[in-house]
Amino acid sequence: MLSEFELIDRYFAKRTAKRTDVVTGIGDDAAVLAVPGHQKLIVAVDTLVSGVHFPINTTPYDIAYKALAVNLSDLAAMAAVPAWMTLSLTLPESSETWLKEFSEGLFSLADEFSIELVGGDTTRGPLSVTIQLMGVQSKDKATLLRSGARSGDLIYMTGFLGEAGLGLLVSQGKLPDIEIFKPTLERLQRPQARVELGQALSGLATSGIDISDGFLADLGHILTASHRGALLYLDAIPLSPVYQYLKKEGLTSQWGEVAEASYMPDLQFALNAGDDYELCFTLPPDKKEALKSIAASTGCMITQVGLVEQGANIKGIDALGHTVPLLQGGYQHF
Ligand code: ADP
Ligand code: MG
Question: 321: phi > 0 → left, psi -120 to 50 → alpha, else beta; which?
């Protein structure tokens, strides 16, 4: 059985990327980081609790990957450049196979962004993973806040909506685990934070947020912070191609026994499903061309889905301009 210090040394200290701006990393009472004077420090922290944020049968690799990815998504939504992280790990037991897989998942993503693990804490208890991610941003660059949306700004989102939501239904056995749903499980377990795009939006977008609780809830956060309302073009919302497949083939006819009718995933489901980790942001109309070139250079799919207006509500309209009532229900712990 590994001691706590052997465990940290073998699976974390020796595996992490090494950065020149880390004066003292793992091994002392605290980490010492050299933040250059021309940069702002931007910090996010997120905890993943077993059975709450990931199903208990999730692989250690995916748990670690997701724990970092959700923090990367927060930093992306601020237009920050990720640099260092700390890891607080609560484990029921010290299993070497578990730790090996966990550290592989963690560093596969950390190495991609040259993030160094500079410290943490290891305790025994019910499985829970907390990562604190620190990033930098040049002081002359604009941070992307929730509060900057103005009336007349265009509302955009990246990628597809409701993909991870379908993945969750599959992982819960409410949809069948068949080939067509593979991309949805992938999205749920290994979210792709829009780090590069987020950074490129600094100085262009007036506000931004990552879509973690559900699109309506997260757009709602922007609107509340900005004291605005919005018009949402429902027919423009980019749904995962899997939805189109489901619509065409019909869900209940093929998998009647597995899928309960109440779980028939549709646009309203996608608008409220969490865990997509795409970005939602607002942009003044005169920045449209600049956004196009960013979309091209980052290879990121970006879609205009609405318009910021006076008021405080989100009004959904269909292709004919008719109002469609929106069913709201983003994820809240309390
Ligand atoms: P302390 O008693 O001062 O809290 P610890 O014994 O908890 O120190 O940790 C020893 C060193 O190992 C510290 O530098 C700490 O940051 C690091 N560490 C502990 N757990 C982890 C972990 N899960 N990942 C990375 N570093 C860790
Ligand atoms: Mg400690």
Answer: left
* In the block, residue with structure tokens 């990327």: 17
Quick one: CA dihedral 84, 301, 181, 306, positive or negative?
A: positive
The pair of three-digit structure tokens given for residue 228, joined into one six-digit string? 């605005």
**DSSP states of 66-101:** HHHHHHHHHHHTTT-EEEEEEEEEEESS--HHHHHH
What gap in Å lies between CA 318 and CA 313, rounded to an integer? Answer: 16
Summarised one tens digit per residue, pLDDT across range 294-310 is 999 999 999 999 999 99
CA 64 to chain centre: 14
Q: What is the pLDDT of residues 131-177, one digit of tens each?
A: 999 999 999 999 999 999 999 999 999 999 999 999 998 888 888 88
CA quadruple 255, 259, 260, 264: dihedral positive or negative? negative
Beta pairing class for 81-91 and 22-24: unpaired
Task: State in Å: Cα 136 to ligand 1 middle.
Answer: 23
Counting ligand 1 atoms within 8 A of each CB, the residue from 26, 33, 90, 115 with the most, and so the one to mutate, is 26
Delineate the domains of the chain, giving CATH numbers in brackets.
4-138 (3.30.1330.10), 154-324 (3.90.650.10)
Q: Helix, strand or coil for residue 145? A: coil
Alpha helices in the chain (DSSP H): 4-8, 60-76, 96-112, 163-171, 182-189, 195-200, 215-226, 241-249, 251-255, 267-272, 288-298
| Ligand 1 touching residue 87 (CB < 6 A) | yes
**Bridge partners of residue 85, in order along the sequence:** 117, 133
User: Rounded to the nearest whole angstrom, what is the distance from the C-alpha of residue 50 to the centroid of ligand 1?
Assistant: 22
Query: How many Å apart are CA 263 and CA 256, to the nearest integer?
Result: 11
> What are the Cα distances from residue 66, in Å, to 56, 172, 272?
14, 18, 20
Contact 8, 123 (CB under 8 A): no
